[in-house]
Design brief:
The protein contains 14 helices and 16 strands. With 348 residues, the chain is α/β, with parallel strands linked by helices. The protein folds into two domains: 191 residues, Rossmann fold (3-Layer(aba) Sandwich); 139 residues, 3-Layer(aba) Sandwich (Rossmann fold), CATH 3.40.50. It is globular and about 60 Å long.
Length: 348
């Protein structure tokens, strides 16, 4: 069996939950796995893999009014790197030298990818963002600046992987090789849950900051109850119940809701598809991946992509729930085995 080092970007939880599923599957198949991560992702992985996670420096993204601020992001990361990048690189080199991995998996974690190449350890990329650079996509008009900045960031993030495994819900042509498309990677709990269709909507505010328009629209809508997560308030406000984020409670509501209103993050969309939940999506401004995700959800009939939200738009979405749900009915359910098989094929 192989020794595998899994390095996951720690910004948010999407990369970490992917590492949770893949890491658990590899351990179950008899491989030895250690992890590198940072921030929220690192804290999450330390809970599920005690004694196997090493803390490193992780890049952060700065937001203002729900939009990514490129200059502020660069300034923050440069300032932090002067303090913690050196010790973080020492941790990575120490783990590579003493753990002696046969293969490194990088989930959008650039520093481990760099040092793996420098030390001659083969690494593969396993993430969803390389969809934007390695695949042929139907791109919506406009968003040129977002496209160029995102493309440059991904291409410069790291190169030289033995293979790029792109986790996606799309069937698209591959532009650059060696690239393999693999099914969406879900949180371990999701694979075991059975969905149902309740009489309420779930709202998730991811990355919107103080997005008052979203809150106002939800509170002005009074047709179905709404359970809302990620807001700066809690409790009952009209038809809206604001809840603190708890992973299991959130998943239970997601699996049993009538439809979802939220940002267009990859993980949320893939979980909605797994549970056959129609989506009303507001892609995060300045984040081109979310723009593409929402565009395809709209194009494929799984939901609707909008740039603003009000009660009339929510009402129209609710009127079309059954249409969206019937379109999603034939989507194959995601399983972890194809991803594990793809990783094992890359072990030297």
């Amino acid at each position: 069996m192989a020794r595998i080092l899994y390095a996951a970007c720690g910004e948010g939880y999407g990369h970490a939950t992917r590492a949770h599923s893949v890491g658990s599957g590899l351990l179950a198949r008899g491989h030895e796995v250690q992890f590198l991560s940072s921030h929220k992702g690192g804290a999450y992985l330390r809970e599920v893999f005690p004694g196997r996670v090493h803390e490193i420096f992780g890049l952060r993204v700065a937001f203002r009014n729900g939009q990514i601020r490129a200059l502020r992001t660069i300034a923050h990361n440069v300032a932090q790197s002067f303090v913690v990048l050196g010790p973080s690189n020492a941790v990575i080199k120490y783990v590579l030298r003493h753990y002696k991995p046969d293969l490194v998996i990088s989930d959008f974690e650039p520093f481990t990818a760099f040092w793996s190449q420098w030390k001659g350890v083969p690494f593969i990329s396993l993430d969803n963002v390389h969809l934007l650079t390695h695949c042929v996509l139907d791109r919506p008009p406009g968003f040129v600046n977002d496209l160029l900045s995102t493309y440059a960031a991904i291409r410069l993030h790291y190169a030289g992987a033995k293979r790029y495994l792109v986790s996606t819900f799309l069937k698209v042509a591959i532009r650059y090789h060696p690239t393999t498309l693999v099914p969406p990677i879900l949180r371990p709990t999701v694979y075991t849950m059975e969905p149902s269709n309740g009489d309420f909507l779930l709202a998730y505010k991811g990355g919107f900051g103080q997005h008052e328009d979203l809150r106002t629209a939800l509170e002005s809508y009074d047709r179905l109850p709404v359970r809302a997560y990620g807001f700066e308030r809690h409790g009952q406000h009209g038809h809206v119940t604001y809840r603190r984020i708890h992973p299991q409670t959130f998943l239970e509501d997601l699996a049993s809701c009538a439809g979802v209103i939220g940002t267009a993050g990859h993980s949320l969309i893939c979980e909605c598809l797994h549970f056959d939940k129609p989506m009303l999506l507001l892609p995060l401004r300045g984040q081109y991946e979310q723009i593409i995700n929402a565009h395809y959800v709209d194009k494929l009939g799984y939901g609707r992509s909008v740039s603003r939200l009000d009660s009339a738009i929510i009402n129209d979405f609710v009127d079309r729930l059954e249409i969206h749900r019937s379109t999603m009915a034939g989507i194959p359910k995601a399983t972890i085995d194809p991803i594990l098989d793809a990783v094992e094929r890359e072990i030297p």
